[in-house]
Amino acid sequence: DEIGDAAKKLGDASYSFAKEVDWNNGIFLQAPGKFQPLEALKAIDKMIEMGAAADPKLLKEAAEAHHKAIGSISGPNGVTSRADWDAVNAALGRVIASVPKAKVMAVYDSVKAITDPGVPAYMKSLVNGPDAEKAYQGFLEFKDVVEKNQVATASAPAVVPSGDKIGEAAKALSDASYPFIKDIDWLSDVYLKPLPGKTAPETLQAIDKMIVMGAKMDGNLLKAAAEAHHKAIGSIDATGVTSAADYEAVNAAIGRLVASVPKTTVMDVYNSMAKVVDSSVPNNMFSKVNPLDAVAAAKGFYTFKDVVEASQ
Ligand code: CLA
Ligand code: PID
Ligand code: PID
Ligand code: PID
Ligand code: PID
Ligand code: PID
Ligand code: PID
Question: What ipTM was estimated for this complex?
């Protein structure tokens, strides 16, 4: 297709730049400017809306392209192979072409709003400047091809299941865990702290397992889960907590998502996360909430998971 061909040209223009970026730099975990969680949440919300509007099949293929690319990483900077670099660009170009232009620009504008204007120049200073310029020229040509192939309207909204066992169980889970949700400091910057003692390549292995799980999920249910999160963001209070009803809808949507993939795929995520998350992390989280609320939430979760497993 045209976007695939354009991605090869983009690769010619940008792979030198890709090799010069230190993808293992811990700086990419930081906020790109002043830490302002509620503004950042607005930017994430625009990404969620864009994801929910995208063609689920193309999202799945983009996840698969990223998984493949993680498999061909080499060298100290963590760069993928030239072929996989091109394949990721092509897959993302197709995802972007599957949503209306305004959805893409809404992400751009909201990310710009939380990004310090000095950040791009600083990023450029870490690589060979002319290679960054060349990559950007390549991007500008690529985007014209994407725009030419872009849809005018979003894909249809998800079909949300109702009256299912997971939906019922989500009510009980949400009743049991909403007090815990209200205890959590959602506006803390602790969630942007590096994982104690873990390197970027180690952490990437756990992310890879999530990508694999995402690629296996039912596309309609994934879209429904994104829509549920978008709705939940719309009902947050000043502390970032969503309404009880929207929290329940999120739990139901995630439960259905989990049930749409094999158990081993879920356990692969859990086990790989357990490898990179030191026990000090959950202990620290636990120390900041009412322990009775956390234990009640955990109990609710263990009951819920049996219902999910039964529909898996
Ligand atoms: Mg989510 C999970 C935040 C958007 C899909 N997500 C999580 C949690 C964290 C979170 C609360 C990971 C950390 C954890 O396990 O804490 N998500 C979060 C935010 C946003 C977001 C702030 C921003 C909008 N997510 C989002 C989108 C999608 C997802 C757009 C795609 C549709 N998210 C998604 C999945 C999963 C998450 C599939 C998870 O599996 C993971 C999770 O919750 O695993 C348990 C603990 C969890 C909580 C504090 C909230 C849930 C409370 C449960 C139901 C009961 C509590 C159990 C116990 C006390 C703690 C866990 C024990 C552990 C051994 C499992
Ligand atoms: C400017 C001035 C003009 C010239 C110009 C110009 C530049 C415009 C630009 C630009 C626009 C632009 C846009 C970019 C957009 C990037 C969008 C990224 C989206 C990320 C998402 C992430 C996610 C997910 C995902 C799916 C999940 C939801 C999420 C589901 C259902 C200024 C040059 C024209 C770079 C969507 C993918 C996992 C949130 O106009 O004179 O330069 O860049 O998890 O959804 O699972
Ligand atoms: C524009 C103007 C509007 C019209 C429009 C428009 C276009 C927007 C576009 C577009 C945005 C866009 C974005 C693209 C992004 C591509 C990103 C590619 C990333 C590839 C990576 C590969 C890799 C890896 C990996 C992880 C490793 C690092 C690597 C570690 C820690 C402008 C059309 C709406 C194409 C990251 C995955 C293995 C490097 O908005 O008027 O057209 O395209 O090895 O991580 O090692
Ligand atoms: C300039 C002037 C214009 C011309 C121009 C120009 C240059 C702009 C530039 C540039 C922008 C730019 C951006 C870059 C962005 C790179 C982003 C990389 C992200 C990597 C991540 C990696 C990671 C992980 C991971 C998970 C870990 C955390 C991490 C945990 C919990 C100035 C040329 C346009 C290079 C996210 C995945 C392992 C961080 O605009 O005239 O030159 O470069 O380790 O999670 O640990
Ligand atoms: C234990 C001991 C027994 C008792 C037991 C027990 C506990 C097991 C547990 C547990 C398992 C478990 C699993 C959990 C899994 C969470 C999985 C999260 C996945 C997140 C994903 C994120 C993403 C995306 C997304 C889609 C994108 C890709 C991504 C596309 C196409 C130990 C109690 C049984 C919590 C997939 C969603 C946006 C990466 O077994 O004696 O306690 O918890 O962006 O994909 O866009
Ligand atoms: C298990 C054992 C295997 C069988 C199995 C199994 C099950 C795994 C499961 C499962 C995993 C799972 C995960 C669930 C996660 C739910 C997470 C809900 C999160 C809700 C949020 C709501 C909100 C917001 C929001 C953003 C705001 C904060 C909030 C800010 C900054 C165990 C079946 C495989 C259900 C986060 C979105 C508005 C609170 O593996 O043997 O069954 O379920 O307002 O952010 O303000
Ligand atoms: C313990 C002992 C057992 C019993 C038990 C137990 C407890 C475990 C616990 C617990 C685990 C736990 C986890 C919690 C996790 C919360 C995660 C919240 C994530 C929030 C995010 C918010 C955000 C943003 C956002 C984007 C911004 C950055 C942020 C930028 C660029 C110990 C009870 C089982 C509470 C990600 C979205 C706005 C950070 O196991 O016997 O009690 O709690 O602002 O992006 O700025």
Answer: 0.98
